[in-house]
Amino acid sequence: MKNRLRFIFLSFMTGVALLAASCSTQTAPAKKSAATTKTGDSINGQTIRVMAYNIHHCNPPSKPEYIDIEAIANTIRTQNPDLVALQEVDVHTNRSGAYNQAEEIAKQLNMYYYFGKAIDYGGGEYGVAILSRYPLSEKQVHRLPTQAETKGEPRIVATVKVTLPGGKEIRFGSTHLDAQKTPVNRELQINEIENIASGEKLPFVIAGDFNASPEFEVIRQLDTHFTRTCQTCAPTIPVNNPNKAIDFIAFRPAGKFRVKSHQVINEKYASDHLPVVADMEVQP
């Protein structure tokens, strides 16, 4: 009897041990990485937050001749974007000091950057820039046309290839169209942007200051080839009592992105434009 009881007891304890071992080998829930907890990211890492911001060469309108790079960087940091299209960026100019503003902002935000020169200005350069949380390649400046007799300021669109988490690639562009009252240059320039886009194989997001509101032909032309992240768009200028939307984010083809949100940020100090932010899901 003793041996039988001992056998039953040992069999019982062996079963308990085997059950415990089985439970201990079950996979624990995976922890989210830092990348998936960011405001603009979805679980699969394919939602991007895009920002368009005319930074007025980092000069707060309320403080003439004062340069506040940190205020621009803080505005961007608060929104935690993945991609940023900047306009009115100074590099080593007399009015802004010995700074590459694109580089300085990127350093403060720990982002990649690309500056595209539109013109020589004040002993340095002036143009647009791109900031990115993800690696950049195929960086390029495309010159946009200006009708000679208008003596309009030369304009560009800067484009890059962005490699997103998981290897998905998109094209991203930053632009700033002509500011003259006559629309002729803006119309020429949007036509050239459409020509550039028509030869693009990657999904393409463009953002910037188009110096035209939606009721004008320039934006109607934009809408024929791109989809804006807003249709009834909140105004972006002036920062005090804004009444006109001229800063936009747009994409093509329409089926490659889904707009999750679009907002104009009510930041009145850092620049003479309000920044625009959109969350966009990149479709497979």
UniProtKB/TrEMBL annotation:
All residue ranges annotated as the Endonuclease/exonuclease/phosphatase domain in the record: 51-273
Signal peptide start-end: 1-20
PANTHER family from the UniProt entry: CALCOFLUOR WHITE HYPERSENSITIVE PROTEIN PRECURSOR (PTHR14859), ENDONUCLEASE_EXONUCLEASE_PHOSPHATASE DOMAIN-CONTAINING PROTEIN (PTHR14859:SF15)
This protein's name: Endonuclease/exonuclease/phosphatase family protein
Keyword Signal: yes
Classification via Gene3D superfamilies: Endonuclease/exonuclease/phosphatase
Keyword Hydrolase: yes
Lineage of the species this protein comes from: Bacteria, Pseudomonadati, Bacteroidota, Cytophagia, Cytophagales
GO function terms (MF aspect): endonuclease activity
UniProt keywords, alphabetically: Endonuclease, Hydrolase, Nuclease, Signal
